[in-house]
């Protein structure tokens, strides 16, 4: 397997930031029927840690977004599956994804989830890439702004590998076949 060029965000930086996000989210949703809705597969680790930093009662569920975009980030067809989604009618939903790149995945998911009539719908992403957005919306909560590099780890993959890494790393260009 290929190698990480450098660590962009350490595991302890991630933990610290998630604690801050948990506090903000708890304050914003106190007394509300919150459902954290993760986007499979990339958000699983973020969701697991974020849930434990949210100090108010909440439910969790998942939707799936897959893009047949080859291995990295070139545009491709996006498929969204809401079959696993719990009943969110009348609930305050926080959609949680790993990264906001072009924003097309989040935009498309918001359109689908709206149809299930949540009381409110906001977004939280761990990473928000600079200079890539192709949509008008922005995430309501984000962990870190990052430069336009291809990152892996902490749930994020390259060709479905590297998700297990505890930190966010940048792959060497030759590892990406460039
Ligand atoms: P968007 O629709 O362009 O915002 O892309 C979001 C999805 O693309 C994410 O959920 C990831 O699966 C993938 N993605 C975008 N940038 C990266 C990256 O740097 N590393 C790993 N996956 C990425
Ligand atoms: Mg991915």
Task: Report what the structure shows.
This protein has a single domain, classed as Rossmann fold, CATH 3.40.50.2020. Helices cover 22% and strands 34% of the residues. The protein has 178 residues and is of the alpha/beta class. It has a six-stranded mixed beta sheet with strand order 4-3-2-5-6-7, sandwiched between helices. Strands 1-9-8 form a three-stranded antiparallel beta sheet, with helices on one face. A hairpin with an 8-residue loop joins strand 3 and strand 4. The longest helix is centred in the first third of the chain and has 19 residues. Helix 1 crosses helix 2. It starts with a strand and ends in a 7-residue tail after the last strand. The chain binds inosinic acid and magnesium ion. The site of inosinic acid (IMP) has 16 residues, from strand 5, helix 3 and strand 8.
Summarize the structure.
With 178 residues, this protein is of the alpha/beta class. Helices cover 22% and strands 34% of the residues.
Mean pLDDT: 93
Helical proportion, percent range: 10-25%
Order of helices and strands: EHEHEEEHEEEE
For the secondary structure, the number of strands is 9
Tally of alpha and pi helices: 3
Shape: globular
* CATH C-level category: Alpha Beta
Low-confidence stretches: none
Main sheet record: 6 strands, mixed
Tell me the domain tally.
1
Q: Provide the structure class.
A: alpha/beta
Radius of gyration: 16 Å
CATH third-level topology? Rossmann fold
CATH architecture: 3-Layer(aba) Sandwich
Hetero compounds: inosinic acid, magnesium ion
The proportion of residues in beta strands is: 25-35%
End-to-end span in angstroms? 16 Å
């Amino acid at each position: 397997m290929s190698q990480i060029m450098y660590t962009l965000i350490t595991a302890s930086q991630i933990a610290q930031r998630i604690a801050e996000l948990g506090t903000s989210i708890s304050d914003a949703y106190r007394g509300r029927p919150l459902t954290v809705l993760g986007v499979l597969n990339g958000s699983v680790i973020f969701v697991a840690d974020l849930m434990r930093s949210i100090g108010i009662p909440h439910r969790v569920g998942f939707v799936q977004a897959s893009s047949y975009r080859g291995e990295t980030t070139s545009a491709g067809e996006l498929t969204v599956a809401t079959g696993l989604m719990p009943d969110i009618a009348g609930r305050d939903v926080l959609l949680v994804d790993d990264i906001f790149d072009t924003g097309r995945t989040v935009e498309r998911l918001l359109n689908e989830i709206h149809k299930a009539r949540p009381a409110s719908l906001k977004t939280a992403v761990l990473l928000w890439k600079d200079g890539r957005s192709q949509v008008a919306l922005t995430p309501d909560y984000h962990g870190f702004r990052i430069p336009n590099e291809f990152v892996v780890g902490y749930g994020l993959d390259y060709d479905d590998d590297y998700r297990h890494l505890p930190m966010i790393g940048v792959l060497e260009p030759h590892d990406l076949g460039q």
